[in-house]
Specification:
alpha/beta; DNA polymerase, domain 1; 12 helices; about 15% strand; globular; binds S-adenosylmethionine
């Protein structure tokens, strides 16, 4: 099956231009995937640089590690969810010149139907990035209360008639568990009829976000990522969904906003952060043509002042 996705790293030229990894710098890639961004960043930092790559998916981590085995850079590969930052990092290496996150699913997840991310093939309804932990999509559909399912389909999938879908899921699971992608598609078809192909992407997206706690993970990254920057460091986040981009935009805006006296409006504290992307950076028409996955990508980045001092080492 030819994937709608390719292995081309999304917004790569823009990431390199804006995050500008330089010779001898340290880079943390919290979503290593197949190592596409990583390789380009490593080429820039060269043999005197340092690289750490994380991925929640141990298969992707292994593939990336294999494809990067020739790199002449001190590197560490860690099977971890970025929800566990900073504890998952080596204690003596917890600040970086460049941090990159390219969140969401990788081409492998879509290309391998056995992972359950695609509704195009019948397979176990798994949808976990990390198959060593957490509940599968099937387990969540079996156990979550209807109101949680309803808010997930509404909020993460922006699904019309979400209540009818949840009612149908509750009815069917009372009879037998929904264990496979094909069984979920049948339930959806019973509710949405000929509109099923239009809503399946939204339904699988909502379930994936729920299974992998993607928004909580992103909130954590936004809270912790800036504190992992060295003075002069840059943090870039590529998101693929308006819900995610909204979180990134608001968090970054908060970080670059000066604290002001509520009465006088006079600045109380200068912020050490600067936006590197006053507007979200989107892929060019040529990139979207080459790689349809990039279509909804959106990069935002900020930097920490080189003059910033703290008690961190
Ligand atoms: C879009 S792909 C990254 C592609 C990569 N930039 C490249 O060029 O090959 C996203 C990767 O992040 C991983 N991932 C998603 N959420 C994660 C999380 N919270 N913690 C760690 N890895 C995560 C997925 O398993 C997937 O491999």
């Amino acid at each position: 099956m030819k994937s709608m996705f390719t292995h081309e790293p999304v917004l790569l030229a823009e990431c390199l231009r804006i995050l500008n990894p330089e010779s001898g710098e340290s880079v943390l890639d919290v979503t290593l995937g197949l190592g596409g961004h990583a390789r380009a960043f490593i080429d820039r930092i060269g043999p005197t640089g340092r690289f750490i790559g994380l991925d929640a998916d141990s298969d992707n981590l292994r593939l990336a590690q294999e494809s990067l085995k020739d790199i002449p850079v001190a590197s560490t590969f860690i099977h971890a969810n970025f929800l566990s930052l900073p504890d998952c990092l080596p204690e003596d290496r917890r600040t970086f010149d460049v941090i990159i996150a390219d969140i969401g699913l990788s081409s492998v997840h879509v290309d391998d139907p056995s992972r359950g991310f695609t509704f195009r093939k019948d397979a176990p309804l798994d949808l976990r990035f990390d198959r060593t932990t957490g509940m599968t999509g099937a387990a969540l559909l079996a156990s979550l209360d209807p109101s949680t399912l309803l808010s997930a389909f509404r909020e993460y999938g922006e699904l019309p008639r979400a209540r009818s879908l949840v009612d149908a899921i509750v009815r069917v699971r009372g009879d037998h568990p929904i264990l496979r992608t094909g069984e979920l598609v049948d339930v959806v078809r019973g509710v949405f009829g000929y509109k099923t192909p239009d809503v399946l992407p939204q339904i699988f997206q909502a379930l994936r976000i729920l299974v992998n706690q993607e928004l909580s993970a992103l909130r954590h990254l936004l809270a912790i990522g800036p504190s992992l920057l060295k003075p002069g460091g840059r943090l870039g986040i590529i998101s693929f969904h308006s819900l995610e981009d909204r979180l990134v935009k608001h968090a970054f805006r908060g970080l670059v906003t000066e604290t002001k006296d509520v009465v006088t409006g006079a600045p109380i504290a200068k912020t050490p952060f600067t936006l590197l992307t006053p507007k979200a950076v989107r892929p060019s028409a040529q990139e979207v043509k080459r790689n349809s996955r990039s279509r909804s990508a959106c990069l935002r980045a900020l930097s920490l002042s080189p003059l910033y001092t703290s008690r961190r080492t």
